[in-house]
Amino acid sequence: MVGLALLVTSVGLADSINPSTVVPALWLAKAPRARGIAAYTLGVFTVYFAGGLVLVFGPGPSLIAALQQIKGPFEHALQAAGGAAVLAFAIFLWRSRHQPEGEPRAPRAYGRGSAFALGAGIMAVELPTAFMYFGAISAILAARLAAAAEVSLLLVYNLLFVAPLIALLAVRRLAGHRGDRWIAGAQERLRAVGQLVLACVAGAAGSALLTIGVGGLLLSG
After folding, report:
1. Domain residues of the chain, as ranges?
2. What CA–CA distances, in Å, run from 195 to 40, 85, 88, 133?
3. 69 partner at 20 to 30 Å CA-CA among 42, 43, 59, 124?
């Protein structure tokens, strides 16, 4: 149980560094009085946590069992296709990393409902490709714990996932206008470094997956 908790914690922390959720939060933080960050964070948390609950107590075990039955050439073909797609995405990111940004627009103040919908919508789109989350859920299911323990681990994971958003909210609320410069700098650094890092990680993962898939097809042929 301790090992599983450490695994869930480490994966949750790694997953929390997600530009898809952090960048919109930085944008909201620059709005007047930083309205909407709390509702946005709640929207992100609600959809991600609900998705995890559905997988754990719904079709999750069946889906994992079905995936474990995929073997042989079909498995290697899926690996090769997935690797090629990820590699193409990495190449696109790499080639577009120096494209100039458009003129920045002044962020408007979001209402609670629209900010919540923004966070929920982003996670609804992100959830089907939340591979780190799926890995943590697979480990939780494999441990065959009681329902309360499974929910607790999911809760810990999701609280860690939104930890950067909560920290940003705290900085904006406590520092007030003094935090504006820090937020602007963080946004610029994330824009400059995030795309390059994502391109490198995606390129490495895509190349490895493509190599495994093609190698498996050649050996099985």
Report:
1. 2-220
2. 23, 17, 14, 21
3. 124
